[in-house]
C-alpha cells in the first residue's frame, strides 16, 4: 500500500483539486490512473481495518432523478467511509417545483456541503447540462463567498456517461488482467443485447467506448440497425483509440464483435432517436405518446431477440473464455424475464466476478471525492495510514 | 458495570460471532442472557456519558416492508450509538422490482454493510424465509470474497417472531422483578384482545410464548375460537416450558388466563387462517378480495368485544396488581378508538412502565449487533470503558 | 473568536439550558444575543477548519409537515456539524395515523434523541400548539425517567413564528450594518407583495415584526386591506417597540413603508381570515372547498398586483439603496412567474446578499442546540477550540 501511495505523488493531477468528475474523456490519463490507485488504496485500508475517515463532519448532497440501488448505496458507502453524511434532495418534498432557479437550489443545499452526487439520465441533452449548471452555480457561490467551500460534483450517471460505473468496470479489468498496462491489445466487445424493456439509458455503452479506448484496447462496438448512440461519443472513441494506439470499430453483428474477444459487455439500450423522442414526450407530459412509443419500441426490439449472450457465442471468444461483464441488473433469460440479454448459464458462470466488479464502485466514488479535496492526496493518504485509526475498534 | 462485563466472558456465546438474530428459540440460554447483559451495559455506558461507538464508519442497511415508528427509531438509535450509518433500502426507489434476485440485491447493498435490519411481517411463510435468504446470500458473498465482511442480519419483525420486541419485553420484566432468575414461576397471561382493526401480525404473541417459556415462567395463552397462531410456535412453547421447568397452557378465556397472573399482555391479532387467506390475496393483488376479507374479519372480531383488559379483570390478577404490558401502540377504549384492547384507566396506570419497556429496544438491538461483531465482546466492552470517550463532549 | 467566546459567559442565559426555542419573543435579549454570538463562533470555527463536534453519537429527530429545502438542509447541516444524526419521522411510513397520542409518539422517537426539529405551519392555531405538546411530552418523559435526556425542541416554522429564519435574517443585518447596536433607529419595511400563489404562511411577516422591534428599529408594516396577520403578534410588536425604544407602525401602502427605509422585506402571505378558513377545510378534508377558496383568493390577490418591489420603489428608500431581503424562494417577475413579488433587476442586484442571508441558518440552528445542551456554553466552546480537532483532516 505504501508503494502505491508513493506513485500518487508522481502523477500530474493538480487539476483535480477542487474539481468535478463529469466525463472520463475530460480527464487526463494521469487523472484516471490516480482514481484507480486511490480506489485501491482506500479499499486496502478498509480491508486492513484502517479507517480513511478524513471529514469530522460535512454533508454530501445526493439527487437521484431516476431509480437507483447500486449507485445509491455506493455513494452512501463512499461518503460514509470518508466521514460525510448524505442528505438526499428529494425534489418531491422540496419547494423546487415552484420556479426556483438551479443556481439558487444548488447554493441553498451547499452551505455545509462538500460533495454533490447527481443521477440524471432520463432526458437526452439535459442530464449532463444540468450537472454542469449545478457545478457552475456552486463555483460562483464559492467565488462570491456565499459558500465557505467548493462542493465537488460527482456524476452518478447522466445522458452521456456513467463514469463511476465504467471506472469500476475498468478497475475490475485491471485487477483481472493484472494491471492497467496489461489491457493494451485486449479485445472488448461492447454490444447491444435484447431486453423486453425499453428506454434504458445510453450512458453505459457510451461510457465504455469512451473509456476503454483510452487504454490501447481493441474496442468492438455492435448494435442492430437503428440502435446507434450519440455521434459525439463515437467520435471521442475514435480519437481515443488513435491516441492510445488501440482500435475502435463498429462491428456489424454480435457474432463479429465476440469473435476472439477477451472481454464481452452485452447490454440493452434504447436507440438514440427513441431517447430523443422520449425526451420530448416526457417534457410534454404526453402519457399517451409515451405509451405508444413504448409499445412501438418493444415491438422493434423483438426483431432482435437473437442478440443474446449465449454459450455458443461465448465459445467464439478467446479460449472460449472471455470475461463477461454487465453493469447489473441484467435481464437473464428464464430468470428475470422469458427472453433477455444473457443466457442463465453464462450469467451464472460469471456471477461472482460481476459482483466483484460492482464492489469497486464505492471505492471509485470515494477516490474521486478524495482527489478533489486534497491538494496533495498522496501525502494525505500517508498521514491517514500513519494515524492508524481502526475502522472497527 | 465492570461486574456485568466480567460475566460476559463466562458465557458460551462463540456461536454469536458473525451470526444473525432471527428467532429467540434458535438461541441458547447463554446467548439470550448475553443480549440482556450487553444491552444493560450499553445503556449504562450511555447513561454515564461513555460513548460505546465501536465503528469509525460502516453502513447499516434497513428494509421496512411495513410501517414502523418504534422499531425504525430503535434501529437508527442502536446503529448510531455504535457508529453505524443507516441507509434505507426503499424498494420503491430502487431497481429491484425489475426481476433482480434476492441474492443479487443482498450483495449489492452490502459492500460496506456491517448490519442488515429487516421488517417483513405481511406475508405468512414469507418474511422469515426472505430474511434467511438474505443472510444466506451475504454469507455466500462473504465466502466468495464479494463482500469484505459478513453483514449481520437482525430480524426487526417477521411472520414468526419479533425478537427485538420480545427481548425488550423480557428485559423490562428482568428489571421490574429484579433479575432473570426472579421470573421463574411467575405467571404471564398472553391473551388476545379486541381491536376495531384487522390483519395485525402474529409475531408478538408467537414471540412472547416462544420466549417467556424459556425462563421457567407459567405462560397462559388465551384467544377466542379461531384466533389460533402457528402450530409450530405452540410446539416450541410447549417444549420450552418442559425444558425450563415452567408451564405452558392454552386457557379458554381471558378471565382464566388473568386469574392470579403476575404479568398480562393482552393484544389483538388476526387469526392464522385469515393471515393465510390475506397472504394469498395480497400476492394476487386482489383488492376486492382484501376489502371483503377485512369486512368479514371486522364483523367476526366484534363477537369478541368483551375481550378487553378492564379494571375488573386486572382485579383478578395477583394482588390486583399484575404488570400490564403492550408492544404499543395500543387500541385504548375511548382514546384511540371507541372500543379497544384496554380500558383507558388501566392503560394510564401502566403508561410509564410501558414507555420504559419500549425504551429497551435500542439497547437490545445494539447488543445483538455488538455480540455478532466481536469475538470477545467482554474484552471489547472493557476496552470501551477504559477508552472513556464521552458521548457528549 | 476567543473574545467572542468570552462574552458568552457575561450573558444571563441559564434558562436556555435544557430548554426549547419556540418564539423569539419568549426569549430575553441576552438569550437572542447569545444565539447570534454562538452562531458566529461556530461559523468561525468551521471556516477555520476547527470541528465543533460535541456529540460522539445522538439522534436529531426531524418532522416536516410541509415541504422544505432550505430549512431541511440547514437542520441537517447544523446537526451534522455538532455530531448528531438526523432521523426523519415520516408520518406516512409510521403507525401514527392509527390514533396514537402525541405524548406517546414524542417519547417513542426520543429514547436516544437529543434534538427534535419540527415544521408545522399549515394549520392556524395548531403548529405551535403541537410543538408545545411535544416539548411537554418529552419533558414529562424525562421527569418520569422514560427518557435518559431531555430532547430540545427547535421550531423550524410554525403558524406563529419562523425563528430560525428571522434570527438568520437578523444576523445578516448585524453583519451588514456592523453590529446589533447599529440596528437601532434603522427603518425596516416588512410589506406584503403580490404572488400568483396562495396559502403562504404568516410566520415570516409575524416573526419579522416580532423580532426586529426588539432592537430599537423603526418597523413599518404594510399590507393590502384584509391581509392582516394575527392580532396577538401585532400586540407583541407594539410592546417590543415600546420597550426597546424603537417604532412599530402599520403603514397604508408599500410606498409609505418603503419611504426612506434602510431595509425592505417584501413578501407574499395569505390573509389571516383565509388561513383560518383553510385550516377548517384542510381538517374537514374538503377538497372542493379548498379549490374554491384557492380560486377566490387568487382572484383577490390579483387586485394587488401593483404590490411589487420595483426599481422605482427601491429608489424611494434611503440613498436609493435599502437592503432587500427575502426568505427565499421569491416569486420573481419574469423569472419564476409572470408577475410576482419582486422585479428581476432588483432581485438580481441583491442575489448575493440574500444567499449569504440564507447561509446563516445552519449556524443559527446549531447555536440554538448548543445553548440548550451545555450549562456553561462559553467554557465548552473554549474547550472545543483548545481541543483543535480539524473538520477536514
Number of helices of chain A: 16
Briefly, what CATH class of the largest domain in chain A?
A: Alpha Beta
Structural class of chain A: alpha/beta
For the biggest sheet of chain A, the summary is: 5 strands, parallel
| Percent range of helical residues of chain A | 40-55%
Contiguous runs where pLDDT drops below 50 for at least 5 residues of chain A: none
Tell me, briefly, the overall form of chain A: globular
Question: Which architecture name of the largest domain in chain A does CATH use?
Answer: 3-Layer(aba) Sandwich
Number of discrete domains of chain A = 2
Task: Tell me the greatest interface.
Answer: A-B, 40 and 38 residues
Strands of chain A, count? 9
Strand order of the largest sheet of chain A: 7-6-5-8-9
What does this structure look like?
The structure is a homotrimer of 393-residue chains. Chain A is built from 16 helices and nine strands. In chain A, helix 2 (29-47) packs across helix 15 and helix 7 runs parallel beside helix 8 (231-244). The mean pLDDT of chain A is 95. In chain A, strand 6, helix 8 and strand 7 form a beta-alpha-beta unit. In chain A, strands 7-6-5-8-9 form a five-stranded parallel sheet. Chain A has a four-stranded parallel sheet with strand order 2-1-3-4, sandwiched between helices. With 393 residues, the first copy, chain A, is an alpha/beta fold. The radius of gyration of chain A is 21 Å and the shape is globular. Chain A is 46% helix and 12% strand. Chain A has two domains: 2-161 and 361-387, 3-Layer(aba) Sandwich (Rossmann fold); 165-357, 3-Layer(aba) Sandwich (Rossmann fold). Chain A binds chain B through residues 46-47, 51, 53, 64, 67-70, 72-74, 76-77, 80-83, 85-86, 197, 328-329, 331-332, 335-337, 352, 355-356, 358-359, 361-362, 389-393, and chain B through 53-59, 61, 85, 87, 89, 93-96, 98-101, 104-105, 107-109, 111-113, 141, 144-148, 373, 380, 383-384, 387.
Amino acid at each position: 500500500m505504501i508503494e502505491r501511495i508513493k506513485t500518487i505523488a508522481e502523477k500530474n493531477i493538480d487539476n483535480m483539486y477542487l474539481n468535478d468528475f463529469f466525463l472520463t474523456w475530460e480527464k487526463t490519463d494521469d487523472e484516471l490512473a490516480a482514481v484507480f490507485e486511490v480506489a485501491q488504496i482506500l479499499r486496502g485500508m478498509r480491508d486492513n481495518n484502517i479507517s480513511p475517515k478524513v471529514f469530522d463532519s460535512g454533508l454530501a448532497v445526493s439527487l437521484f432523478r431516476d431509480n437507483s440501488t447500486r449507485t445509491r448505496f455506493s455513494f452512501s458507502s463512499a461518503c460514509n467511509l470518508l466521514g460525510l453524511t448524505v442528505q438526499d434532495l428529494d425534489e418531491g418534498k422540496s419547494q423546487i417545483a415552484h420556479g426556483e432557479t438551479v443556481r439558487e437550489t444548488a447554493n441553498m443545499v451547499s452551505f455545509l456541503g462538500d460533495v454533490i452526487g447527481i443521477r440524471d439520465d432520463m432526458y437526452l441533452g439535459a442530464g449532463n447540462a444540468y450537472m454542469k449548471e449545478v457545478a457552475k452555480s456552486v463555483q460562483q457561490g464559492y467565488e462570491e463567498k456565499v459558500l465557505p467551500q467548493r462542493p465537488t460534483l460527482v456524476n452518478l450517471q447522466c445522458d452521456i456517461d456513467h463514469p463511476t460505473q465504467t471506472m469500476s468496470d475498468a478497475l475490475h479489468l485491471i485487477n483481472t488482467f493484472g494491471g492497467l498496462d496489461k489491457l493494451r491489445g485486449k479485445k472488448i466487445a461492447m454490444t447491444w443485447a435484447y431486453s423486453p424493456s425499453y428506454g434504458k439509458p445510453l450512458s453505459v455503452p457510451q461510457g465504455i467506448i469512451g473509456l476503454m479506448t483510452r487504454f490501447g484496447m481493441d474496442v468492438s462496438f455492435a448494435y442492430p440497425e437503428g440502435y446507434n448512440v450519440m455521434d459525439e461519443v463515437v467520435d471521442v472513441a475514435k480519437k481515443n483509440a488513435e491516441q492510445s494506439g488501440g482500435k475502435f470499430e463498429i462491428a456489424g453483428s454480435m457474432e463479429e464483435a465476440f469473435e476472439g474477444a477477451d472481454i464481452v459487455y452485452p447490454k440493452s439500450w434504447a436507440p438514440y432517436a427513441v431517447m430523443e423522442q422520449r425526451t420530448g414526450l416526457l417534457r410534454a407530459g404526453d402519457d399517451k405518446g409515451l405509451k405508444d412509443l413504448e409499445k412501438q419500441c418493444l415491438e422493434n426490439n423483438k426483431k432482435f431477440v437473437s442478440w443474446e449472450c449465449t454459450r455458443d457465442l461465448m465459445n467464439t471468444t478467446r479460449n472460449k473464455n472471455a470475461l463477461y461483464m454487465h453493469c447489473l441488473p441484467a435481464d437473464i433469460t428464464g430468470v428475470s424475464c422469458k427472453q433477455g440479454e444473457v443466457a442463465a448459464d453464462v450469467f451464472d458462470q460469471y456471477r461472482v466476478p460481476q459482483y466483484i466488479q460492482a464492489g469497486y464502485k464505492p471505492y471509485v466514488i470515494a477516490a474521486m471525492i478524495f482527489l478533489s479535496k486534497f491538494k496533495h492526496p498522496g501525502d494525505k493518504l500517508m498521514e491517514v495510514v500513519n494515524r492508524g485509526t481502526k475502522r472497527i475498534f
